[in-house]
Design brief:
Layout: H1 3-13, H2 37-47, H3 51-66, H4 69-96, H5 103-117, H6 131-153, H7 159-178, E1 189-190, E2 196-197, E3 200-201, H8 205-228, H9 230-240, H10 242-247, H11 252-278, E4 280-281, H12 288-301, H13 308-322, H14 332-346, H15 350-369
Antiparallel strand pairs: 1-4, 2-3
Helix pairs in contact: 4-8, 4-11, 4-12, 4-13, 5-6, 5-11, 6-11, 8-9, 8-11, 9-11, 12-13
Length: 370
């Protein structure tokens, strides 16, 4: 279907797409004579940048300048790497209505392939290829794995999609745990370190933080761009009413599989960062607890907002590091569960939803006073 046909179909069926809740309208484009559609969408994205966005950007850029190495690496870098993995889930769940519990498994595939094709503490198994070759192969294989998961699960909906992706994640965990010739069993791969490029050692807190920040910003803006593209708008239409979109001429299955492939790209890059952050990859890195943690982080931040995964990751990492001061480490899951239940009960849209509610009340109060 051409772009002109797509716009005609969307205009013809825009009023009938909703099923319960209306599909979000496409963002207004900036009219610039001679600009291509892609350039207009890019300018439209820039037009939505507000003062608070600039303040947040300046803060994250300057964060290592005033934070300690522990806060820079343990809190900042970990939150960014983990948030990028969770972003892949929020893209699938928020835009496509597909909740996948296999995103940490896709990230784990990238981490394992990085350790196998690159350098690690297991030279008998690892190939020892240059980091950029190993990273490229790892991302490609992870995208293929994520696409395969999508191909298996897109023909189902709701709880069945969750169960299929959970089964894939659990199967991958047991494969890594029991296979020694490729995945090195329960020991996994130790000493999988970030590279040194142009004399910059990315194992140091500040360089690694900026590496993670660059990847996180790239993933965030890429998702924002895709959501405003014809593909993203069609994906939201499929989420709201797949049968109507199919009647309009859209290949529903192909769109969903493509969404899984794009989400796998985000998860793969996040998996590389998370592996470099930990310096290892083991079956525990892709265990059932992490499959569930990714979903919890997504819901904490807000499933329908691209910034939500990073907010949820910050809260999760802060609780993970400082909850021990208030409660035993063994009861950490109890704390996370309590926070999760509170968010679900009082704000189904996550922490972003709480902020939106408070902001709406403040605006209403100011309007009443004026």
């Amino acid at each position: 279907m051409s772009a002109a046909q797509w716009r005609h179909a969307m205009n013809a069926g825009a009023g009938r797409l909703a099923m319960g809740r209306r599909a979000p309208a496409p963002a207004a484009t900036v009219r610039v004579p001679g600009a291509t559609p892609a350039e207009r969408r890019y300018l439209s994205l820039l037009a939505h940048i507000k003062a608070r966005h600039v303040v947040v950007l300046l803060f994250v850029l300057a964060y290592p300048m005033f934070a300690t190495p522990f806060l820079t690496y343990q809190i900042g870098a970990q939150s960014l790497a983990l948030g990028l993995i969770v972003l892949s889930l929020t893209f699938l769940g928020g835009s496509g209505g597909m909740i996948s519990l296999a995103q940490m498994s896709v990230a784990g595939v990238a981490g394992y392939m990085l350790a196998i094709f690159g350098s690690s503490g297991e030279p008998a198994i690892s190939f020892g290829w240059p980091w950029w070759v190993a990273a490229t192969i790892a991302v490609v294989i992870a995208i293929a794995a994520g696409t395969a998961v999508g191909w298996l699960s897109v023909r189902t909906e709701g709880i069945y999609t969750i169960m299929i992706t959970l089964a894939v994640g659990v199967a991958f965990y047991h494969l890594c745990l029991q296979n020694y010739s490729i995945f090195n069993g329960f020991q996994g791969f130790q000493r999988v370190y970030a590279p040194t490029i142009l004399g910059i050692n990315f194992r140091d807190p500040m360089p690694f933080y900026y590496l993670a920040l660059g990847c996180a910003l790239g993933g965030y803006f890429l998702v924002k761009y895709v959501l405003r593209s014809p593909f993203g708008i069609a994906l939201e239409g499929i989420r709201n009413n797949a049968r109507r979109m199919n009647a309009l001429g859209f290949a529903v299955t192909a769109h969903r599989v493509a969404a899984y492939a794009f989400a796998a790209l985000l998860a793969a890059i996040g998996g590389l960062l998370f592996t470099w952050y930990n310096g290892l990859i083991t079956p525990n890195s892709v265990g059932t607890s992490w499959l569930i943690n990714v979903l919890i982080i997504a819901i904490l931040g807000g499933l329908r907002h691209p910034i939500g995964p990073f907010i949820g990751a910050i809260v999760f990492v802060l609780l993970q590091n400082f909850a021990i001061d208030l409660i035993d480490r063994e009861r950490f899951n109890l704390v996370i569960g309590g926070v999760f239940l509170a968010i679900v009960l009082f704000s189904p849209d996550g922490l972003i939803g709480i902020w939106a509610t408070v902001k709406s009340k403040l605006i209403t109060q100011r309007g009443g006073k004026s």
